[in-house]
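Chain A, query sequence.
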Amino acid sequence: MARVWLTKNMKVAAGALSGSQSSTLEHAELRTRGTRTHEKRAIYIGGVRFDVINRRQALECMTGFVEQGGSHLVCTPNVDHIVQCELDPAFRETINRSSLSVADGMGVVYTSRLIGRPLPENVGGRLLLLDFCRVAAKEGYRIFLLGGEPGIPETAAQALTATFPGLQIAGTFAPPVGFELSGDASEECVEAVRVAKPQALFVAFGAPKQEKWLSKNLTRINVPVSMGVGYAFDLLAGKFPLPPKWMTAVGLEWAFRLWHDPKRLAKRYLWRDFRFLPIVVSETLRQRRRFKAGASE
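Chain A, predicted structure.
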């Protein structure tokens, strides 16, 4: 059984689940209610929602969720997520109904610029995790790391506390492979988080499993901030090397990952994600039609 690491004497803000945004499958620009007193704009690429905010604003939203209490799902869709959503409407709906949805990867950012609805920057789940931990160490927020192979979340937690002195780890838990197929194993994950009562939960099950699991159990775990982080724990634990910053900045992190883990990622990057190209073409043509229609009015 995976090891659970819990701290004592923790309190968590309680509240009702925040209202989710209604979704649409059309490419459009709209406004969604943000935290505090401001609203945030959103665009859709391939039917997937992206809030038009930068990393600083995304971090402000997350800390705002902690202040509000309740349960909030944060999603970080990337190119592969958009492709998966084409065949998995439930995954798309989960993202579109989240409290916050930000671009993960320059591929999404480049596409938004191409269709004339530019996103400010690559926010990224891994980057946002580090940003939040920096603030959490200062503000006393406790975080929980859920997922990964046995020993990985514990090692990742050690790396985070070494990087951010004062960061409080509410708990870590590595469920067994296939846990989602067992009601008891999934319930064990829920209970581990509920007992720990963190302010933020970061889950590394991989997409779309992590987003769907969080959406299904969001109100039960009652954590102000819940976010899927993919392979971030593996990077923090040193299982894979960190990509150079310049490769992340220009959108080549995928190539670095493929080089270091070809057996697992070749099918994704060299086959599945090529389906993104028709989506880009479709969105570009749709935008041009909208522009021409607007010009003729």
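The chain has a mean pLDDT of 85. Residues 29-291 form one domain.
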